Amino acid sequence: MTEPLIITSFQTNKLFLSPLLKIKYPTFWNHFNSALKQNNIDYHFIPFTKDVWVTDFMPVQVTNEKLIRFQYKPSYLTGRYKETITDNKAICAEMKITTIDSEIIFEGGNVTQMKNKVLISERVLAENEKFTGKELVKELEKLFECAVIIIPVEPNDFTGHADGMIRNYKDNIVLVNDYSFHKRFEKRFHKYLAKAEIKFITVPYYGFENKSVYDACGMYINYLHLQKYIFLPVFNLATDNAAIEQFEKLFPDDKVVPVLCNDLAKDGGAVNCISWNIKK
Questions:
Q1: By 3-state DSSP, what share of the chain in percent is helix, strand and coil, each rounded to 5?
Q2: Angle at the Cα of 47 (from 46 to 51), degrees rounded to 5?
Q3: Do 162 and 151 meet the contact criterion of CB atoms below 8 Å apart?
Q4: Model confidence pLDDT, tens digit, residues 20-57
Q5: What single DSSP character describes residue 52?
Q6: DSSP code of 115?
Q7: Which residues 6+ apart lie within 8 Å of 18 measured at CB?
């Protein structure tokens, strides 16, 4: 199998958002919009969105010319939440985005793209039971043109998405949440990474203190990396400063911009979740 250079968040330079952010999360929007303007970051709104979590339903960019449009039908959006399922096919047609279409049910928030491999949580297996595990991985590897590494789902995470657990850092190194509060899961998670020969650095994580499984407060790893900026979620927690200091050390060539995310996080996401950032 060839190993092309997959586009990672480090390389992205175009930002797209849902206009619903202004309506549904005005406090977050005021902070985020101000941060973008202060750093001269342009953005564009995506048409026809029914919710703000655009990274999940927009196509996944693999190379400059290759974007994959998956089926956006997550099992966690049931009952009254069905009305929030956005038609990504209509969006791509309106925006004149050419895609490779897949029948796999998948969300963009469940993939961490490294230089020559992608990390996807095992939630994708549960969402696509018509495939065997081997068949599904084989098809995903065909689409991404690289190795697919399956990792476990964080306990009590209703989305099961990788972008709340692990992010690409550099070479064969990733950033992962500090799961020392959950030793059993931490051991299992690290075992998966070791098997794939992936090294890791832990970053602060205080989501375990939240009373609701939908609350993402304390999830610093869900940051937006765009151009030379790290838009880092903060939550008015005592641990915010420690997180900011660590990210400034991890990314000395980038500017770390804190963004208050409390009202957004209460519905389960942070800055990466609401951003579709691509390379153009």
A1: 30, 25, 45
A2: 75
A3: yes
A4: 999 999 999 999 999 999 999 999 999 999 999 999 99
A5: S
A6: S
A7: 45, 46, 49, 51, 52, 54, 274
CB 69 within 8 A of CB 92: yes
Q: Which pairing describes strands 199-203 and 173-177: parallel, antiparallel, or unpaired?
A: parallel
Nearest-angstrom CA–CA distance, 261 and 17: 15
Query: Which parts of the chain are beta strand (E)?
Result: 14-17, 44-45, 60-61, 67-71, 100-105, 111-113, 117-121, 147-151, 166-170, 173-177, 199-203, 224-226, 229-234, 255-260, 276-278
Residues 185, 179 contacting (CB under 8 angstroms): yes
State phi, psi for 111 to the nearest 5 degrees. Answer: -135, 130
- State the amino acid at position 195 in one-letter form: K
What are the residues facing 176 on neighbouring strands?
A: 166, 202
Residue-wise pLDDT for 95-125, tens only, equals 999 999 999 999 999 999 998 999 999 999 9
| Both structure tokens of 254 | 């980038």
How far does CA 158 lie from the centroid of its chain?
14
CA torsion angle for 272, 58, 12, 264 (degrees, to 10)? -20
Nearest to 242 by CA among 261, 225, 226, 258: 258
What CA–CA distance (Å, rounded) separates 105 from 74?
7
259: nearest Cα among 204, 228, 219, 212: 219
Question: For strand 100-105 and strand 67-71, is the pairing parallel, antiparallel, or unpaired?
Answer: parallel
Q: What is the DSSP string of 176-220?
A: EE--TTSHHHHHHHHHHHHHTT-EEEEE-B-GGG-SSTT--TTBT
Closest alpha carbon to 114 in 193, 250, 3, 6: 6
Give the count of alpha carbons within 13 A of 8, CB side only.
Answer: 19
